[in-house]
């Protein structure tokens, strides 16, 4: 018997994107430089095929066409980010009127098509001048961010009723200060912890500022939650998974939703001598200003085992001093991106949020499959037949459906992403869109098979 999976009537169907990844026009209309513009200038070889952030998918010029297509493909909501350095070119001071005009037009265009804008304030794109001051490592930058957030609430709060303080705040922090994927590519755990703490503090301050304004909307955060599964039930494996979870999930999830930090993590930071600098009042501020709404990005699980070897005491400190990654035999892989596909992970996250985080209102804010060289799947009509993507989404959605049956407060599902976009160092290597972008033909948009599949899903609520 074929089972139908029917989703609630007012489920949020849509997609997510970010300014740097889709706007383009990086040097246009007074936008200031962010770290990506700068990094590309000095090290273009870091980027796949040396494609930088300056043009990306041209949303800046083509937002009308794109929004019409979103409507056509069934969107009732769309998440994008405001580019801090477009709105306030150096990160603090004067507001750029051209940017205000652009974001106003995008928001109005969305509403005119019956699509609710979900607006994120920070998606990996530190203004260059603020990075020169230390980026998230610096308390001055926290202040500048809060001013920027307030500016956004004042300018757009009449039309935006769902705000997010950050997208995946752990990602810029770990990649800028530990793992080398984002500028300035340092390897310094102390700075990493400080930057992480400041991101959380900045989020809480922005939430406070938003709530004070009584604008009648909600403010949340978007986190990439990667459930940690131990290799076995051996106590050492279980402990390793618990620590990985504290480092990579609970570090941001606990303060954002509960206003507290996981004691397992604090104990390690104390023991290893990496506690951040905290000022009077910070802990109370974080405690008192938690999110209304949680966005969950899910791509892959984290499989963990107890450490096999002693670590090199002279190497820079890494969280991986406490666990090893486990390469599970027989796991299902997306070979293009090198990521495991584990659909039930999405259910496990939702149940964890239900049971341990007060079943806070949440939604899947990103889920998606990156695939290289998709033109090999072009059919005679010139459409990419991405059945693998449709299957990927359907298998995840079945688990979201199960979570709803089991009481999860999950309100929607946003795919990553609407049109193929620029994925940081990978540039246009892996494509994620429901709509393809032809870089050789002035970014011509063509709906993929998954785009039509999505439309049917959004319209009928049924897979
Ligand atoms: C996420 C991130 C996005 C996008 C996506 C696909 O982690 O939020 O910016 O790049 O991964 O790689």
From TrEMBL:
<dbReference type="GO" id="GO:0016052">
    <property type="term" value="P:carbohydrate catabolic process"/>
</dbReference>
<keyword id="KW-0326">Glycosidase</keyword>
<comment type="similarity">
    <text>Belongs to the glycosyl hydrolase 1 family.</text>
</comment>
<dbReference type="Pfam" id="PF00232">
    <property type="entry name" value="Glyco_hydro_1"/>
</dbReference>
<dbReference type="InterPro" id="IPR017853">
    <property type="entry name" value="GH"/>
</dbReference>
<dbReference type="GO" id="GO:0008422">
    <property type="term" value="F:beta-glucosidase activity"/>
</dbReference>
<dbReference type="GO" id="GO:0005829">
    <property type="term" value="C:cytosol"/>
</dbReference>
<dbReference type="InterPro" id="IPR018120">
    <property type="entry name" value="Glyco_hydro_1_AS"/>
</dbReference>
<keyword id="KW-0378">Hydrolase</keyword>
<feature type="active site" description="Nucleophile">
    <location>
        <position position="366"/>
    </location>
</feature>
<protein>
    <submittedName>
        <fullName>6-phospho-beta-glucosidase</fullName>
    </submittedName>
</protein>
<dbReference type="InterPro" id="IPR001360">
    <property type="entry name" value="Glyco_hydro_1"/>
</dbReference>
């Amino acid at each position: 018997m074929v089972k139908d999976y029917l989703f609630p009537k007012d489920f949020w169907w849509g997609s997510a994107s970010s300014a740097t990844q889709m706007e383009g026009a990086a040097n246009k209309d007074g936008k200031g430089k962010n770290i990506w513009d700068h990094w590309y200038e000095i090290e273009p070889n870091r980027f796949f095929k040396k494609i930088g952030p300056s043009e990306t998918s041209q949303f800046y010029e083509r937002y009308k066409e794109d929004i019409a297509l979103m409507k056509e493909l069934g969107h009732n909501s769309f998440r994008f980010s405001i580019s801090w350095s477009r709105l306030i070119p150096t990160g603090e001071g004067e507001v750029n009127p051209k940017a205000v005009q652009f974001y106003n037009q995008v928001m109005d265009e969305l509403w005119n098509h019956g699509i609710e804008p979900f607006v994120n304030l920070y998606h990996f794109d530190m203004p260059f001048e603020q990075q020169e001051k230390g980026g998230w490592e610096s308390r001055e930058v926290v202040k500048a961010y809060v001013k920027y957030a307030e500016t956004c609430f004042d300018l757009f709060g009449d039309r935006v009723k769902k705000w997010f303080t950050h997208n995946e705040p752990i990602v810029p922090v770990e990649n800028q200060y530990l793992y080398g994927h984002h500028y300035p590519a340092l390897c310094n755990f102390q700075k990493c912890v400080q930057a992480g703490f400041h991101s959380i503090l900045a989020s809480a301050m922005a939430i406070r500022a938003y709530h004070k304004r009584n604008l009648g909307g909600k403010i949340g955060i978007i986190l990439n939650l990667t459930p940690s599964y131990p290799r076995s039930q051996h106590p050492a494996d279980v402990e390793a998974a618990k620590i990985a979870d504290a480092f990579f999930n609970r570090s941001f999830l606990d303060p954002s939703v509960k206003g507290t930090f996981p004691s397992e993590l604090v104990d390690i930071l104390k023991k290893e001598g990496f506690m951040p600098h905290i000022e009077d009042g910070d802990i109370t501020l974080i405690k008192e200003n938690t999110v209304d709404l949680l966005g969950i990005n899910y791509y892959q699980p984290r499989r963990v085992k107890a450490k096999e070897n002693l670590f090199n005491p002279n190497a820079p400190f890494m969280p991986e001093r406490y666990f090893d990654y486990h390469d599970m035999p027989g796991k299902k892989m997306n070979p293009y991106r090198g990521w495991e596909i584990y659909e039930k992970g999405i259910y496990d996250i939702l149940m964890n949020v239900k049971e341990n985080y007060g079943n806070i209102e949440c939604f899947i804010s990103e889920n998606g499959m990156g695939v290289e060289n998709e033109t090999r799947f072009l059919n005679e009509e010139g459409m990419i037949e991405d059945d693998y993507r449709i299957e990927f989404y359907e298998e995840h959605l079945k688990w979201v459906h199960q979570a709803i049956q089991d009481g999860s407060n999950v309100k929607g599902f946003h795919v990553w992403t609407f049109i193929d976009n620029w994925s940081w160092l990978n540039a246009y290597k892996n494509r994620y869109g429901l709509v393809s972008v032809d870089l050789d033909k002035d970014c011509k948009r063509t709906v993929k098979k998954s785009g039509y599949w999505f439309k049917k899903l959004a319209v009928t609520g049924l897979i």
